[in-house]
Queue: 3 jobs
Job 1
Amino acid sequence: MKDPFLITKEEILKFYKPVNPLTHKGLQGHAVIIAGSYGKMGAAVLASKSCLKSGCGLVTAFIPKCGYQILQISIPEVMVLTDENTNFMTSIHLPLLPQAIGLGPGIGQELGTQKALFEFLRVNKSPLVLDADALNILAENLSWLELLPENTILTPHPKELERLIGKWNSESEKFQKTIAFSEKYKVIMVMKGAPTYIIIKTEIYENTTGNVALATAGSGDTLTGMITGLLAQGYEPKYAAKLGVFLHGLTADITLPETGYQSFIASDIIENLGKAFLFLEH
């Protein structure tokens, strides 16, 4: 296996775009987060909030009806569209054309949701970030991967990765299989773990930020939101993925002295995103 390229501050600064002082929300991108089901609306909240906190101008959450008040009360800055179904998604119709879409956190794997995902993928043209249950549904229906726009970003944790590429017997086999998967379906693979790796066809990138504090519920949902927000702001998919994982890890490095490993939660990632951006700019 060839040596990975390291994702460092120096590398990030080569493509990082500071905010234009003359910009307005309409120029900062409109992202859609499709997430949540009964009992898992927190995933939609975390992904939507982190999307907004990554610098995105406008964020719309598409959720089942049961999450309407939850979203509107917990993140007043995020707009909300609801499915006609109460507890899970059955039909994804967007009355807008967003610059990027993040899909999957907490959506569950109900048959109606699987059908909705298929119908959505058939017509979607926006850049995509797929996570969590969207990946689990795709793992059961690999032919649907052909419907993804080129350079769609997939963010599997180890178990989701195994469902997608099959079991592996060694680290090198895991990388070989992931590279083959990335090449076959023309997707970018964010292999979450310690450290997180990004596979873009035959290129391997290793993130240099982050620590075990990130091994907590909702951490992946915030990463999905962040990468989606960066995509919506006009970053190319490979740069959105790199900047997203770098900032995500950096929040844990910055916050650890205050929280310790045990008390760090996914909301701390969102709260400390500002400090992570400031670190890049100084």
Note: The chain has a mean pLDDT of 97.
Job 2
Amino acid sequence: MSIGNSSEDDRPSIGHALQRARVAAGLTVEEVSSSTRVRIPIVHAIETDDFSRCGGDVYARGHIRMLAGAVRLDPDPLIAQFDAEHGGTPAPTPAAPLFEAERIRSEPRRPNWTAAMVAAIVAVTGFVGFTVFKGDGDSGTANVAEGPDPDKTAPSPSATRPADPKPAPSESAIAAAPRDKVTVKLSATGKSWISAKDHNGRQLFDGLLSKGDSKTFQDKERIDLVLGDAGSIELFVNGKKVDDQFEPGQVERLSYTKGDPEVG
């Protein structure tokens, strides 16, 4: 008989803990399903510790977190218990180094064009300025006595031209970036768990979005998404809004590339 393990052995199962908290909160399964957008059969299955209807461990973790929040139960101990019973939590690959690495590879082409354009503008402006200055020197004081002459004053605004074209290459470079990559933005209109991976299958994000939250992901080839509640998410792919009407509580697996937005 092991007394040291008695408290752990007496710990209720995940489903029992969620069911007991729901009953204590005075909520029905239908009310919990309505607030979390988790379908009623899945709520019943989870409360009996049957996670097979969740579609996998990743989705089960998201469902447990949403149900725990609905019944005012701390989800972290339940997630830790689930991970201990199902092989642990996969360590996600940080998204920032991936984006930084891709940015370093793609930027050398764009600044070269920008630098060439600015250099050409500066060279032309310098030549025009030098010609005008030389012409003014040859004419002596006659130009001063003549006062403002449209022909003489016309080149002077060109002296400010190097400052004007600079924003244009930068803006065009930013606008051209989406053509080299796929950009996906998710905005939450309700509460939904989401998962995002790059084209190599590396995890970019795995967590819960609350109403008003948004996430943006970028990859050079493809973004794969799993939405725990697709009806609570607005999608923008490559600058265009995806108008697919998803049902509340509907789990969706989506894939987007650099082409026109289309459901994978």
Note: Strands lie at 182-188, 192-197, 203-209, 214-219, 222-227, 233-237, 240-242, 252-257.
Job 3
Amino acid sequence: MKIGFIGLGNMGGPMAANLAKAGHEVAGFDLTAPMPDGVGKAASAAEAAAGAEVVITMLPNGAILRAVAAEIVPAMQPGAVFCDCSTVDVESARAAAARAQAAGLGALDAPVSGGVGGATAGTLTFMVGGSAEAFDTVKPLFDIMGQKAVHCGVSGAGQAAKICNNMILGVTMIATCEAFALADKLGLDRQKMFDVVSTSSGYSWSMNAYCPAPGVGPQSPADNGYKPGFAAELMLKDLRLSQQAAEAADADTPMGELAAALYARFVEDEDGKGRDFSAMLPRFEKRHRPG
């Protein structure tokens, strides 16, 4: 396929490189990031989109997505698919899709899970909203960039799935870090704690696959000085998106709200910015019960 790829940072760069490595013709555009191997450099987002069968975007937020959509949709050829892989608010995802559909284009919101490691290895999970026809068009590309793509429903459903998933992730990581810090204070060996919880009712992805305790379980950012991985400020962004969506949907999410507040404190008032989101463990290690 001829593919336009806009947004070539930590996630988009390796995703575009994997598509080029698989033999697709990829034209890329980014304001600052270098072109990955095999990706041709376009002078603008519109130039990257012109003549492409699929245009993929990986952008920082909903406002930028809306601006890029306004630029590239008029440049795209009829019948092409606009596939946004950013994590943004549901309203922006639906607005970008509506603009594309009004121009006779296919549109997908397809946020990802798996982090930079998954983007590099081609093992991402895509949560996809949009038409079945557009999903079928892009499915071969999802298979190159990831290990799984789930068609979640109409436009916005992909973002809804990502936001709900990451609200669970943020809450469970905090609980896992709290439990390790409590185990330390109770004199319980961390490896014994892992051996019990990872095979008992407390198991979770945060414990079993991404353990926040160094030297315990599979390799994780905890074993690399808590270098991200998945940065705490990105978790904060996703938790805030979850609470924005909860407010719009009139949903009661007290644990999600508390997780957002804790990550805000960690990132904005403490030393969490630039650290992996699992660095909540050393945070709790240093803290005492209030009062």
Note: The CA atoms of residues 236 and 263 lie 6 Å apart.
